Amino acid sequence: MDAATAIEIPENIHTLGVEDSLRILQTSTNGLSREEVQKRQALFGHNILKEHRASRLAILLGQFTSPLIYILLLAAAVSYLVGHLADALMIALIVLVNTLLGFWQELKALSSIEALQKMTESKSLVVRDGKEGWVASSQIVPGDIIRLNEGDIIPADLRLIKVEGLNIDESILTGESVPVSKEPAITLPKQTLPYELDNMALSGTIVVKGSAIAVAVYTAKKSYLASIAEKAQEKSPPSPLSRALAIFIKKHLLLSVSLIALVGAIALLQHRDLIEIAMLLIAEIVSAIPEGLPVVVTLVLAVGAMRLSRKKVLVRYLPTVETLGSTTLIASDKTGTITQGKLIVKESFAINAEFTKIAAALANESKQGKGDPIDTALAQWLGVDYEEIRERFRRTSFYPFDTKHRLMASANIIHEEHKIVVKGAYESLKAFALNTQDFEQLEKTHDEFARRGLRVLAMGVGDYESDDMGKWEIKIVGLVGFLDPPKEDVKAAVETAKKAGLRIIMVTGDNALTASAIAGEVGIYSEEDTVLSGPEIAEMDDETLKQKLAHTTVWARMLPEYKYRLVKLLQKEGEIVAVTGDGANDVPALKVADLGIAMGSGSEAAKATAKMILLNNDLSVIIGAIRQGRIIAENIRKSIYFLVSTSMDELILISGAILMGHPLPLYPLQILWMNLVADSALDKTFPFIKEEGDVMARKPKKSALQFFDKVQILRTLFASSIIGLLGLWLYHATMLTRGYDVAVSTVFTAMVISIWVNGLQSLKEHEPFLKNIKISLSINPYLWLGISIGILLHTGALFFAGEWFHASLPDRESWGSIVMMALSVFFLIELRKWAELLYKNHIRKKAEAC
Question: CA-to-CA distance for 305 and 286, rounded, in angstroms?
Answer without folding.
Answer: 31
